Amino acid sequence: MEVRIFSCETHINHALDMFVAEQKTFPMLEELKEEEKLSTVCSYCENSALYIVANEN
User: Distance between alpha carbon 16 and the CA centroid of its chain, in Å?
Assistant: First the structure.
């Protein structure tokens, strides 16, 4: 099952902690592309997301 958490700068540590707690494995952390940043919001607040925390593909 693919897990994708979008995160702003403020919530990145929380996103990483939640991923590890739920998935019992380490995630991939990637910075969103500029065009993705404009339309993607943080999974924890309404701020623009800067990062994606996801399963390794």
Answer: 7
pLDDT tens string 2-44? 899 999 999 999 999 999 999 999 999 999 999 999 899 999 9
Query: Within 13 Å of residue 33, how many CA atoms lie on the same side as its CB?
Result: 2
Report domain extents, the chain.
Answer: 4-54
Instruction: Write down the pTM of the prediction.
Output: 0.90
DSSP string, 6-51: EE-TTTHHHHHHHHHHHHSSPPEEEEPPHHHHHH-B-SSSSSBP-E
Determine contact, residues 44/14, Cβ cutoff 8 Å.
yes
